[in-house]
Design a protein that fits this description.
Elements: H1 24-44, H2 55-62, E1 77-83, H3 101-108, E2 111-113, E3 116-117, H4 122-131, H5 160-165, E4 170-176, E5 195-199, E6 210-214, E7 217-220, E8 223-224, E9 227-228, H6 238-252, E10 259-264, H7 288-313, E11 320-326, H8 350-353, E12 357-360, E13 369-371, E14 375-376, H9 380-387, H10 404-409, E15 417-423, E16 446-451, E17 454-458, H11 478-482, E18 493-497, H12 513-527, H13 568-585, E19 590-592, E20 595-597
Parallel strand pairs: 1-10, 1-11, 2-13, 3-14, 4-5, 4-10
Antiparallel strand pairs: 2-12, 5-8, 6-7, 8-9, 11-12, 15-16, 16-17, 17-18, 19-20
Helix pairs in contact: 6-7
């Protein structure tokens, strides 16, 4: 039986049991005080949860074994939690009205990353995390991988889980993949994960796990390893379901053996859906999208609490490194907030690429600190491989840096620049030109780069407003309208000192043309190393109706090299064989919401 909410907490670990040291003669006199202390401890101890009656059920469900030996693996357990579309403001310690006690506590006891960058949309952030390479070096410079495209993360890139497996790690992924699946070789289990449970696409219904990419292009999107997970088609909210799977993985794994766990939650990406009980604390939020978003984030916060509890319960926590990150900025039209940063998801303004992030671990040397050094999502690849005592091949040109000493010890970051992106096929800026780029760069091209304190943007950076919290209330849009900036002013180049002006309010491109030229030259240097863009057209064979009602691999090599039949007899035999196959497949149809699939 499924627990309520976002998966109930696991039973408290044996190390939390109260052992009263008093003598036998004092036991009677102090019994009342003992009980009171125990109750107080249980209430105040972080992470005990509110659903005590469910603990026994969870223990039985997970098949919990006795507490393992305290002998820890020399390699740390690596837990990477990726939230989806969480805005920069949308965490308690950034001043949000949304309550996130778990994230606040984990961050306060760890290291907050306050100069941390990701990419503005889903696929690019995920590809850079798992390869340690910029988009220009994987061909994924443009947009996202769409479910109908014959495209995926290039197969010649060694992924993070593959490198960790080389040094003895068990690797598990739970949640959203969004790195392509048109061929079986693109699936998570073929890219280094021992197990995979989650979705392949970028979004979908949180309860039914169905996704329509366009009219008539609908299908089921929940997988266990390489097969559709029909057994889980029972209406469980995905945040809860993913947390339960994480608990099961931890319950069955020996903590003396190193573990890499990549948890890519679907929340808080649209559609805006959440279990009813999470709305209780947000009835005062007038804006319905913001209210739903708040409920989703509260559910996610509780889920991460339960993941952390499971790490403690099953003996992993003391040797674990927990990394938390959003994949991009929030989308105000879908309830997210990046205030006071400029812009939103899908843009190269700070609101699209500056992310919530922190590291929590008993292994940190400087706990309870704030890191303001430059860190990028590509840095996790070499950092985690180094922590795992792995090796990075000398011929692999990475864009990430090992930043563990920066985070753990407060040392200077080895990173001094970030190529946010160069997208040669994005809509060109009408006013951009080589002349505007001093003959160094065509400023019609969408690009963005950070070098030390300076940030340069060219082309069309995207929606550029500042969206204050008032826009989500009933106070009216006057303040919001006053913050709007029109890009139809003939501009195609912007320069900001992000350290002094993190909100990008003062464009310095005319004041410092020399710095503009330096950054344009750096862009040009990066562009010389770029590989061709991979963004193929839609393939009609991707339609789930042709694949048993499921989104999944559809591409086969014989599509490319189809040999003609030698004679009519062979044609007739093949036609008869195909007809029998179709009759067999049509014997057990299961049609739902206009989409037919086959369970088998």
């Amino acid at each position: 039986m499924a627990s309520r909410g976002c998966a109930g907490p696991p039973p408290p670990p044996p190390s939390q049991a109260w052992v009263w040291p008093g003598k036998m003669l004092a036991m009677g006199a102090l019994a009342a005080f003992w009980v009171l202390s125990l109750l107080t401890y249980g209430y105040l101890s972080w992470g005990q949860g509110l659903e005590e009656e469910e603990e026994g059920a969870l223990r039985a469900q997970s098949g919990e074994r006795p507490e393992p030996s305290t002998t820890a693996a020399s390699q740390p357990h690596l837990i990477f939690i990726l939230a989806d579309d969480q805005g920069f403001r949308d965490v308690g310690y950034h001043g949000s009205e949304i309550k996130t006690p778990t994230l606040d506590k984990l961050a306060a006891e760890g290291v907050k990353l306050e100069n941390y960058y990701v990419q503005p949309i889903c696929t690019p952030s995920r590809s850079q995390f798992i390869t340690g390479k910029y988009q220009i070096h994987t061909g994924l410079q443009h947009s996202i991988i769409r479910p109908t495209q014959p495209n995926c993360l290039p197969l010649d890139n060694a992924t993070l889980p593959q490198k960790l497996k080389e040094v003895g790690y068990s690797t598990h992924m739970v949640g959203k993949w969004h790195l392509g699946f048109y061929r079986k070789e693109c699936m998570p289990t073929k890219r280094g994960f021992d197990t995979f449970f989650g979705s392949l696409l970028g979004s979908g219904d949180y309860y039914t796990h169905y996704k329509c990419d366009s009219p008539g292009m609908c299908g089921y999107d929940l997988y266990e390893n390489d097969n559709a997970a029909w057994d889980y088609d029972n209406g469980i909210y995905s945040t809860q379901m993913y947390t339960q799977r994480v608990q099961q993985i931890l319950a069955s794994h020996d903590p003396r053996k190193p573990l890499f766990l990549y948890i890519a939650y679907q929340a808080v990406h649209s559609p805006l859906q959440a279990p009813g009980r999470y709305f209780e604390h947000y009835r005062s939020i007038i804006n319905i999208n913001r209210r739903r978003y708040a409920a989703m984030l509260s559910c996610l916060d509780e889920a991460i609490n339960n993941v952390t509890l499971a790490l403690k319960t099953y003996g992993f926590y003391n040797n674990s490194i927990i990394i938390y990150s959003s994949d991009n900025g929030g989308q105000p039209t879908a309830g997210g907030s990046n205030w006071p940063l400029r812009g939103s998801k899908g843009t190269y303004w700070e609101g699209g690429i500056r992310a919530v992030g922190f590291v929590h671990s008993p292994l940190l040397k400087n706990k309870g600190t704030v890191c303001k050094e430059l860190v990028h999502i590509t840095d996790w690849y070499p950092t985690l491989i180094s922590l795992a005592e792995g090796q990075i091949d000398e011929d692999i040109q990475l864009d990430g840096y090992d930043v563990w000493e920066t985070i753990s010890e407060g040392l200077r970051s080895p990173r001094v620049d970030i190529l946010h992106n160069i997208d040669p096929i994005y809509t060109k800026a009408k006013n951009g030109s080589w002349a505007a780029g001093y003959g160094i760069w065509n400023t019609a091209i969408q690009s963005a780069i950070r070098v030390q304190h300076w940030k340069l943007l060219t082309g069309n950076p995207g929606y550029s407003d500042w969206v204050p919290p008032q826009s989500f209330s009933n106070l009216g849009p006057n303040r919001w309208h006053n913050e709007r900036i029109s890009l139809s002013t003939g501009k195609s180049v912007w320069l900001f000192n992000i350290t002094a002006d993190p909100y990008e309010r003062v464009d310095l491109s005319h004041r410092y043309p020399g710095i503009v030229k330096q950054l344009l030259r750096r862009l040009s240097q990066f562009n010389k190393t770029a590989v061709p863009v991979r963004y193929p057209p839609k393939d009609p064979r991707s339609n789930p109706r042709l694949n048993g009602g499921v989104w999944g691999p559809w591409y086969k090599e014989e599509y490319k090299k189809k040999k003609p039949s030698k004679n009519k007899a062979e044609k007739k035999r093949k036609k008869s064989k195909t007809k029998k196959k179709q009759q067999k497949a049509g014997a057990f149809p299961n049609c739902r919401s206009g989409v037919c699939h086959y369970r088998g």
